[in-house]
Amino acid sequence: xxxxxxxxxxxxxxxxxxxxxxxxxxxxxxxxxxxxxxxxxxxxxxxxxxxxxxxxxxxxxxxxxxxxxxxxxxxxxxxxxxxxxxxxxxxxxxxxxxxxxxxxxxxxxxxxxxxxxxxxxxxxxxxxxxxxxxxxxxxxxxxxxxxxxxxxxxxxxxxxxxxxxxxxxxxxxxxxxxxxxxxxxxxxxxxxxxxxxxxxxxxxxxxxxxxxxxxxxxxxxxxxxxxxxxxxxxxxxxxxxxxxxxxxxxxxxxxxxxxxxxxxxxxxxxxxxxxxxxxxxxxxxxxxxxxxxxxxxxxxxxxxxxxxxxxxxxxxxxxxxxxxxxxxxxxxx
Length: 333
Ligand code: LIP
What we know:
- The protein is of the alpha+beta class.
- The protein has two domains: 2-171, Fructose-1,6-Bisphosphatase, subunit A, domain 1 (Fructose-1,6-Bisphosphatase, Chain A, domain 1, 2-Layer Sandwich); 184-317, D-Maltodextrin-Binding Protein, domain 2, CATH 3.40.190.80.
- The chain contains nine helices and 14 strands.
- The protein has a seven-stranded mixed β-sheet, with helices on both faces. Strands 11-10-12-14-13 form a five-stranded mixed β-sheet, with helices on both faces.
- Helix 7 (235-244) runs parallel beside helix 8.
- The longest helix has 27 residues, at 24-50.
- It binds L-MYO-inositol-1-phosphate.
- L-MYO-inositol-1-phosphate binds next to strand 4.
């Protein structure tokens, strides 16, 4: 049941922000229900694609690797309308709204950050890592996250201070206790090719992957660095795998706030760390800038020093890659 319609209004005081804390469970329940309904639309669309009656595929800004479908647009409209109707004072940032030319405004007001389909390329190919991602911030702090993969029926959810869950009942991470991370040499690392296929960006990413899996060191005289590399095609799902504890490190440059806003809460509530995916080691313990387009996440471990060590080892290996973005009014730029 929706108890709260319009609490925030124009008053942006801390007291009002704190008052939202009383409604966190309501917002979370709402986001979970919304994700399930959006997921049903996505699942039906995948089924129709497989039956040969699916939605058409377009490319964004003439980039043949950045795909968008009618379903992305329809699901975003569905979510946006429901949010507008239920919480008319809340702000909205969405992938397809941004793509249609809307300016991103990021303020202290309650803000929903939505990717209708994260993993659109997977959606087009029927590769089962496809998710709707619904994040929510208050005072610019990622506070609620729901990521639902309707193809595998996996729903990840979290609210700040309340823990992270798989399918609403299974506490994340899945391992109890979380196994030791030890060092990067023992890690399974996830990353993505991304949609910027310029030679400079791809060369830098491939060289980083080379360093991650091959870099020789005193500790690894035979050349092996991390255990291996994984890629799902969805930033949100990669981050949820960190929350589950089935991958150890996730690094990506070039994805956007709607890809990660929800899953960042899920990782943090599972005990993981999320920081900027650049080589600056001074930001390891600072809250991540969700607009940075560069993300590094480390799974939960009993020993926080191990998490910090693996983060620093990654930052030694990753290059500085440019991921420009238009300015965010009221945001971090
Ligand atoms: C995708 C991301 C993925 C990234 C792709 C793309 P989309 O999101 O989740 O991690 O590598 O370039 O941005 O476009 O499927 O929502």
